[in-house]
Design goal:
three-stranded antiparallel β-sheet; alpha+beta; 3 helices
Length: about 100
């Protein structure tokens, strides 16, 4: 599955070959495959907490809309952009990219 074909029902989960550490509201992720560090703050860190277990894109969007003051369409647009980046960096796997 390519990142452009991620739908509301696509199952997503954090990749298994990562180390993570929390520093206040920031989350630091080390990709053990390429040795690169990545950082997520605030809402990004919340999204990551949801990705610790397999979850659909739609379920993440619904959780964020219920927890934050954000329009569903804007939330989905920003969420899809972040998920595309996380998948392209090998930090998140889709249901078909185990």
């Amino acid at each position: 599955m390519t990142v452009s074909h991620i739908t509301d029902s696509t199952t997503l989960a954090a990749a298994g070959d990562l180390l993570t550490s929390e520093f206040g509201t920031e989350l630091v992720i080390l990709n053990l495959q390429d040795g690169v560090y990545y950082g997520l703050e605030d809402v990004g860190a919340r999204i990551w907490s949801l990705l610790r277990e397999p979850v659909t894109l739609g379920a993440i969007r619904d959780a964020l809309v219920s927890e934050y003051d954000v329009e569903p369409a804007r939330c989905e647009q920003d969420l899809r952009a972040l998920v595309r980046t996380l998948v392209s960096k090998g930090l998140v796997r889709t249901g078909e990219s185990r």
